[in-house]
């Protein structure tokens, strides 16, 4: 009885939030740090906290559905940093990579998927099977005509991304016969931005981080310079639609200054 009443109240509240957002200012691009999978599993009483990665991967599918429903054109998700892949326990990393292959990459390749996949990060630090699965998802959706764009940040570090972009620019300009002084005189924000992993994609309007942590952890350091930030206390697998709608409500109520 209690569960049915709670479900009815939750549904009513979600519908009320949706109505308030209808016709309002929604972000074109939402980026999300999907944090707290293992802590959620411990909170739920699982003996093996790595189980949280599967629930987290499954939940991404649901959250992407909310984004598509609201017409959010682009989503970026932070799956794993370079340090996550290199420094965490091998068993945990292997489990996470399997979830990415079996749940995320596989579902995005389905013909009915509304998402075009773009990859951002050091794919060379990933296991061969994970890299292959993600590249296959990217290639198979590139010309699919899908209406929405999904960037998967994996093996990602924002500082490494900026260094790599500057290095690529210097190498290209050097091949063209330009000196360091020449490059310095004409160096621009646009030149670096074009060479980031996300070159050509819109910067995020809103960045959401779950789990209650109030930091960026190297995520989209360049791209999120003028983004609105929203920190949510729930762990990623427990991130509900009402939590998402609250983040959008917060965004709609803010006056974006873009550095001004």
Helix-and-strand structural type: alpha/beta
* H/I helix tally: 10
| Helix and strand sequence | HEHHEHHEHEHHHEEH
Distance between the termini: 52 Å
In the sheet with the most strands, the strands line up as 3-4-2-1-5-6
Quickly give the CATH architecture. 3-Layer(aba) Sandwich
Write a brief structural summary.
Helix content is 50%, strand content 14%. The chain contains 10 helices and 6 strands; from the N terminus they run αβααβααβαβαααββα.
Task: Describe the protein in words.
Its EC number is 2.5.1.-. The mean pLDDT is 93. 35% of the residues are buried. By secondary structure, this protein is an alpha/beta fold. The protein has a single domain, classed as Decaprenyl diphosphate synthase-like (Undecaprenyl pyrophosphate synthetase, 3-Layer(aba) Sandwich). Helix 2 packs across helix 3 and helix 3 packs parallel to helix 5. The chain contains 10 helices and 6 strands.
Comma- or semicolon-separated keywords:
260 residues; alpha/beta; Undecaprenyl pyrophosphate synthetase; 6-stranded parallel sheet; 50% helix; Isoprenyl transferase
Topology (elements, then pairings):
Elements lengths: L1 H20 L7 E5 L3 H7 L7 H20 L3 E8 H6 L2 H19 L6 E6 L7 H14 L6 E9 L1 H18 L4 H7 L2 H5 L12 E4 L18 E4 L9 H13 L7
Parallel strand pairs: 1-2, 1-5, 2-4, 3-4, 5-6
Helix pairs in contact: 1-10, 2-3, 3-5, 5-6
